[in-house]
Amino acid sequence: MQNDVILSLFEQWLTASYRASGTVKLRMRYVRKLARRVQLTLATEDHIEQALAETRELSAETRHSILASWRLFYRWAVARRYVLVSPTLLIEQIPVAARMPRVVPDAVIQRSILNATPRDRALVLLGRYACLRLTEIATLHMRDRRGEVLLIRGKGDKERYVYVNDPLALALDVLEERLPRGHYFPGETDGHLHPQSVHKIIKRVTGWNPHALRHAGATAAYRGTGDLRAVQEMLGHASLSTTQRYLHLDDDARRRVAAATVIQPGSMLAA
């Protein structure tokens, strides 16, 4: 089967599986990248190894996305019997080293929103205080707010509730007073800003990658509560291991962990 045919079938399946449009585009981007190197239905482990070697200098997050896309494609292709000899096993075994997440310092956030427009302030706070993804911010509609709660449609069209704290509520209130009822961030794409436009605005206002705001918010939430499961739910992650990669522990937290391993006086006697 030719690459263009199987790519079209795979994209059709992704869309039919109710995955978010951004997810479909991301998966297709990386599978097409592989298709430019190999005949997908005839790829061997050597072909995959060569393609993976070219991703070595990319960030850990990007490599995770690439491998996840290739794994998903080959699982689908094997189930459909479009692939006779699958390199899936090799892809499943490839590790991607974890990197310490970069988090935006609180002082940077406070300075950046001090003179920001109401729209830009809300964009930054939704990334930092609600820990929303770019697409979730861009598509946020006023009907999705129910008082102190936001109904968020995330990856895979999965819904979750995210509570709004006071500073974020105030930022959203200002937009609701100034705009007609509709999207919080009107634009020319489907009535709302494009996620890439949101990325550029947040980067311009804060000087940081918007994903670092999500890391910072997740870290602050975990430090304040110690509830990893609640943080996972807020972020919309399918697994706790993904959430753990978002957390940045400072030296004080590491010292507390080390101190907690000390055997307390009297515990040996009790044993």
Automatic annotation (TrEMBL):
Protein known as: Integrase
Coiled coil: none
Keyword field contains DNA-binding: yes
Protein's UniProt keywords contain Mitochondrion: no
Pfam family, one: Phage_integrase
Similarity annotation: Belongs to the 'phage' integrase family.
Alphabetized InterPro entries for the sequence: CB (IPR044068), DNA_brk_join_enz (IPR011010), Integrase-like_cat_sf (IPR013762), Integrase_catalytic (IPR002104), Tyrosine_recombinase_XerCD (IPR050090)
Keyword terms: DNA recombination, DNA-binding
Lineage: Bacteria, Bacillati, Actinomycetota, Actinomycetes, Micrococcales
Domain Tyr recombinase: 99-259
Provenance organism: Microbacterium soli
Record domain Core-binding (CB): where: 1-78
Top-level taxon of origin: Bacteria
Sequence intervals crossing the membrane: none
